Amino acid sequence: MRLRSDKRHQADDVPEGAPAATPGLAVELRGVRRQYGRGAGAVHALAGVDLALPRGTFTAVMGPSGSGKSTFLQCAAGLDRPTSGSVYLGGTEITGMGENELTELRRSRIGFVFQAFNLLPSLTVEQNVLLPMRLAGERQDRRRADAVLAQVGLADKARRRPGELSGGQQQRVAVARALVTNPDVIFADEPTGALDTGTAAEILGLLRHAVDHPPSSPLRTGSRHAHGATVVMVTHDPAAAAWADRVLFLSDGAFADQLEHGSAEQIAARMTTLSARTSRPGAMAGAAA
Ligand SMILES: Nc1ncnc2c1ncn2[C@@H]1O[C@H](COP(=O)(O)OP(=O)(O)OP(=O)(O)O)[C@@H](O)[C@H]1O
Q1: What is the pLDDT of residue 279?
Q2: Model confidence pLDDT, tens digit, residues 34-90
Q3: pLDDT band at residue 136 using 50, 70 and 90 as cut-offs
Q4: How many whole angstroms from 117 Cα to the centroid of ligand 1?
Q5: pLDDT at 280
């Protein structure tokens, strides 16, 4: 738990003159740019993104192919470094952190759910769920692991290996693993991309439930646990995005539009409009800059 006691980046203890994180936000991006290459061939994958996501919210990010969704997720989750701008997670500025500190932060304060489940096949379901605690050097709390497994409906599968489970069940394990540390934010990258419609709805229902319901017996104190989970999900699927509170639409590396509590049909219509007016080459830089 070294990270939590390290106040260097905390909002309430920033050096004088340094910009502080906005209280109450799980994720904040300020002027985030990510450029690949230089000169005439440069690409502005993120062209100056500002974002403020309150704790306990479910946000979907959509956009045409090449609009910057993966780059956004990677920069917001500390997996990639912006060319410029600032990223704050749970009140902690992560831009400028060293690799070790970032790795520690990802393990203890971010949950990930990927399209391909990314479970370790040689570990049991329970051991997979305990993995973030193990990697973070924390006590492996089996009661907590069993509680989140029960939350995702897999109380009876704790001793199984991932290969013995269906795809939907494996993704439930991944959701349990993302929830187990009560992270500041869960980043989900096409979490239902490999699932059929019914199974996808079950997984999205679990994420929705985690957002709407604070942990009943939080093992850690602190205001961030008075809320349900915060989920940021990249998806191509309007039906998946419709589970979110808000859909943000990326176009040419910038947020171009948003929709609150939209239906799948409304979201699909917005995407069609966006795709029609998007021209990724417009993000080629040399041009603009
Ligand atoms: N490593 C890289 N080097 C150069 N250009 C890159 C790199 N990664 C991404 N890009 C470019 O940055 C832009 C945004 O890419 P990104 O992968 O973030 O888009 P995306 O919205 O996730 O696309 P998709 O939906 O097809 O996965 C694209 O023009 C892409 O070609």
Answers
A1: 58
A2: 999 998 899 999 999 999 999 999 999 999 999 999 999 999 999 999 999 999 999
A3: confident
A4: 22
A5: 52
Give residue ranges with CB within 6 A of ligand 1.
Answer: 36, 43, 45, 63, 65-71, 280
The pick from 36, 81, 232, 235 for probing ligand 1's pocket by mutation, whose C-beta has the most ligand atoms within 8 angstroms, reads 36
Name which of 68, 63, 76 is nearest 249 in CA terms.
63
What would the two tokens of residue 13 be?
């203890």
Nearest residue (CA) to ligand 1, atom 13:
45
Structure tokens at 206: 């679990």
Q: Which atom of ligand 1 is nearest to the CA of 280?
A: 29
Assign residue 20 the CATH number of its domain.
3.40.50.300
Using most ligand atoms within 8 A of CB, pick from 43, 44, 75, 79 the residue to mutate for ligand 1. Answer: 43
> Which segments within the chain are labelled E, that is strand?
25-36, 43-54, 58-62, 84-89, 92-93, 110-114, 185-189, 231-234, 246-251, 254-260
Dist CA 76 CA 81 (whole Å): 9
C-alpha 146/C-alpha 126 separation (Å) is 7
- CB count within 10 Å of CB 61 equals 27
Q: Please determine, for residue 217, whether its predicted confidence score (pLDDT) is greater than 60.
A: no
Provide the number of structural domains found in the chain: 1
Structure tokens at 153: 């409906």
CB-based contacts of 131, cutoff 8 Å, min separation 6: 120, 123, 177
* pLDDT computed for residue 225 by the predictor: 55
Residues of the domain holding 28: 2-288
Report percent pLDDT > 90 for the chain.
75
The predicted pLDDT at position 215 comes to 73
